[in-house]
Write a structure and sequence with these properties.
The chain has about 250 residues and is α/β, with parallel strands linked by helices. About 35% of the residues lie in helices and about 30% in strands. It has one domain: 3-Layer(aba) Sandwich (Rossmann fold), CATH 3.40.50. Strand 3, helix 4 and strand 4 form a beta-alpha-beta unit.
Length: about 250
């Protein structure tokens, strides 16, 4: 497959998958943590849950039975449109989706019992403002060494060259300063195999792993070489490294 073929794939991937990451085919090895399963364990049936950076909403729709009301917010109109469509298809009655910026949570004070945030920016003071006293905040974030072989191939990328643990330390500090206690964290690193070039291109197109991916033809030449060097029987090999923080207010 030559670079021009990858460019065609790049243009077509969004049309095929839209904004729905659930269509991306990826096999992971070594998973030790299911983020929303842990969120669900925290919830009571009488609770109200907020999910920040909810994306297409698939995650909170899947745990809807664990709480009285679940609200998903995202700053992307495209994501919220997808989440709304997914909600309509699911028929789940107790989930709502709103377009909203995490930096300005437009909810009453002390409104939510549980707040979750996966792979999206959050602001500790805003979380503390809308979470009840005694409430729990869960977040899963991308570590600096995530997709390390992809970033090395491109010579650039999300947090490329940043010391491992920098973002985790920043968030823990901000949560502590916002009044959270009992702050716990740990790391999770697994191997991922993307099944096709289209799946990998969709990832790079819709995430900030490689900034401005696809703007120049050289990106597709690099991608072609990367796939050649990392293609295995299981798929195109990379890694997924995350850190998880749980904190109580």
């Amino acid at each position: 497959m030559n670079p021009s073929d990858y460019i065609k794939f790049y243009d077509q991937v969004g049309k095929i998958n839209g904004w729905d990451f659930s269509n991306v085919k990826c096999v992971s090895e070594g998973i030790k943590w299911d983020f929303y399963n842990e969120v669900m364990k925290t919830c009571k049936r009488s609770d109200i849950l907020l999910d920040i950076g909810t994306g297409g909403g698939e995650a909170i729709l899947s745990i809807a039975e664990s709480a009285l009301l679940l609200v998903g917010i995202d700053q992307s109109t495209g994501m919220i449109d997808t989440a709304t469509k997914n909600s309509a298809k699911s028929g789940v009655p107790n989930v709502r989706f709103l377009k909203m910026d995490a930096e300005n949570l437009e909810f009453p004070a002390d409104f939510f019992n549980v707040i979750s945030c996966r792979h999206s920016e959050f602001f500790a003071k805003e979380i503390a403002k809308v979470l009840i006293q005694g409430g729990t905040f869960h977040t899963q974030q991308v570590s600096e060494n995530d997709k390390s072989n992809i970033k090395e191939a491109f010579g650039r990328g999300q947090a490329f060259g940043t010391k491992a643990g920098t973002l985790k330390h920043q968030y823990i500090t901000e949560l502590s300063e916002a009044g959270f206690s009992d702050i716990q964290s740990f790391e999770c690193n697994v191997i991922e195999y993307y099944q096709t070039a289209e799946d990998l291109i969709f990832l790079l197109k819709h995430t900030p792993i490689i900034p401005d991916f696809g703007r120049t033809k050289i990106d597709f030449q690099i991608l072609q070489q990367f796939i050649k060097e990392n293609q295995t029987e299981k798929g195109i090999r990379t890694n997924s490294e995350r850190f998880i923080i749980t904190a109580k207010l």
